[in-house]
Design goal:
The chain is mainly α. It contains nine helices and no strands. Helix 6 runs parallel beside helix 9. The longest helix has 26 residues. The radius of gyration is 22 Å and the shape is globular. The N and C termini lie far apart (about 90 Å).
Length: about 220
């Protein structure tokens, strides 16, 4: 009697499971990216044309938001606080990366819990996490507010720089930062599908810009 040949079907890859990146891996990539951003900031300060950008806070905020999104933050009663905490960790890791790289390059830098920018990383990180969650929300009002906040930080910082430090840093970098912020605000208004969403996006951007500028001028930073 001839032996029967048993044909087994080749395993098919799961369409969703294989493509999805595990949460732990996403968070690890975000943490690594934060350290790398700090490293690149230190080197960027020595590059003509990038030194002003590397000395500004707006790009760091945008990077923190992007890394939170990369980590896969979600909305929810528990997820939102976790995302905000992650935002703080990411910004402080940027400080660590910058501090370590600058010292290794022979430029003494001191990292302290009382450092102004280290302290500012707490509220900025909390906001970055909240923005990262809101920008992915199904409600256009939350998305508009999140993009409006991002635009406000970029435009507010750029205007402050033009008013106070452009004489020593030049104006090009700050004009570019303002232009990017305005572009983000225009995008948020145009993509808001409801009149209320457009009002929220525009109002957040305009009022937020005034608030950011006022805070910079008041703190003198």
């Amino acid at each position: 009697m001839a032996a029967q040949t048993v044909h087994t079907a080749a395993p098919r890859p799961a369409t969703g499971a294989v493509a999805a990146v595990p949460a732990a891996a996403r968070v690890s990539m975000a943490l690594t990216g934060a350290l790398l951003a700090g490293v690149l900031t230190s080197f960027g300060q020595a590059v003509p044309g990038l030194s002003s950008v590397s000395n500004s806070a707006g790009p760091w905020f945008v990077v923190a938001v992007a890394l939170c999104v990369l980590a896969g933050v979600r909305a929810g009663r528990v997820a939102l606080p976790l995302a905000m905490a992650l935002g703080v960790v990411l910004l402080e890791l940027m400080h660590v990366g910058y501090w370590a790289t600058s010292n290794l390059r022979g430029y003494p830098d001191f990292l302290s819990v009382t450092n102004f920018w280290v302290l500012m990383g707490i509220p900025a990180g909390l906001l970055a996490g909240a923005v990262a969650v809101s920008v992915r929300a199904p409600d256009v009002r939350w998305r508009g507010a999140a993009l409006g906040v991002t635009a406000a930080i970029l435009v507010g910082e750029g205007v402050r720089a033009l008013l106070q430090i452009a004489a020593t840093t030049g104006v090009v970098a700050w004009i570019v930062e303002i232009a990017v912020g305005v572009a983000v605000l225009v995008f948020s208004v145009l993509t808001a599908r409801t009149p209320l969403g457009r009002v929220v996006a525009l109002g957040t951007g305009v009022l937020g810009t005034v608030g950011v500028l006022a805070a910079y001028l008041a703190l003198g930073g």
